[in-house]
Every structure is written in structure tokens, then in C-alpha cells.
Amino acid sequence: MYREVQYGWGVMSRGVRSGLVTALKWLSVAAILVWSLGPVYWSIVTSLSRAVDLSSRPLHLIPPRLTLQHYDHLFGASGTFQGTATQSVWPEYSRALVNSLVTSGLATVVVLVLTVAAGYAFTRLQFWGRDAIFAAIVATMAIPVYTVMIPVFRIMVSLKLIDTYLGITLIYATAFAPL
Asked: What is the pLDDT confidence band of residue 11, given thresholds at 50, 70 and 90?
């Protein structure tokens, strides 16, 4: 049968203890899911809710009335939005979307090429200074990104890379590559 274990709060059998551990694991998983997916859910809810419902008290986790008015304002033509005449924001939004896709795509390609090549070199090749270079790379990963923001900005200004695809791609690549 189960062996009883003495704890500070009393005797607990191994079966009860394993059930408690399993329950705590699932509770932890549920908490992590809420923490991770909560902002995504809230973004969807706020995009489908009326402005009046978002400012009402008590707060509704499930909107009482759904609307596509925000998406009509984003993708649609001129019209009224919340009682005022507006124009579609799609031209500005589409440009920002293209900029994000281009820069993140380029940065992903650069990071993949550099890190795959570096990973291969460090694992398969024997060369002078390999361990020292690897230790330096690992040590630089401990430097907070905020400490290098101003120097990197000054370098970008001096190279005239501000407001360019190349400049933001280099920033993303250096921020996300573990080099």
C-alpha cells in the first residue's frame, strides 16, 4: 500500500501527495496560459467591443454586444466613427505593416545565417581562440540592452542609417542574435 509520510501539518499518504503535486502542476500550467494568452484574448475583445462597453463598470470579460466598427474604420472608406467624420487609416496602417514585415523578415534571415554558421563553427571546427571567443559571446549576453542603446544610436546617426530599412534591420539583428 501507500507509505505514510510525516509532515509538519500531519500525516499524508503518498497517493494524496502525488494528487496534490499533480493539481499544483495543472494549476501552474493554467496560470501560465492565462498570463500568456490573456493579452491576446483582451486584444480580440477590445477590437470587437464598443467604446462604451470598454469604459463601463463593472468590466465585461465577454462583451455584451459585438461590433466590427473598429475594423470598418481600419479597412473601410470614409465615414463616421464614434459620432465623428473620419477617413480610413488603412494607408498609414498598411505602410507600417509592410515596414514591419520587411524589417523583421530581413532581420530573421540575417540572424539565422549568422547564428547557424557560428553554431556550426563552434561545434564542429577546432580553431585557435574558439573557447575564448565563445566565452566572450556568452559574457556579452549578460550586458543589458539598455546600456548599449545610446552608443548604437550614435553609430546609426553617424552612418546615416536612421529611418532606413538597413538601420532597423541591423538593430533587430544585433538585438536578437546571441552574438
From this structure: low
Distance, in Å, from the CA atom of 130 to the CA atom of 106, rounded to the nearest integer, reads 28
Collect all residues with Cβ–Cβ distance below 8 Å to 145 and sequence separation of at least 6: 175
- pTM for this prediction: 0.64
How many C-beta neighbours within 10 Å does residue 173 have? 21
Percent with pLDDT over 70 in the chain: 85
User: Regarding beta strands 4-7 and 10-13, do their DSSP bridges make them parallel or antiparallel, or are they unpaired?
Assistant: antiparallel
**CB atoms < 10 A from the CB of 169, how many?**
21
Which residues neighbour 48 within 8 Å (Cβ) at sequence distance 6 or greater? 63, 66, 67, 68, 70
Q: What average pLDDT does the segment 86-104 reach?
A: 87
Q: Is the separation of the CB atoms in 73 and 88 below 8 Å?
A: yes
Longest CA–CA span in the chain (Å) reads: 75
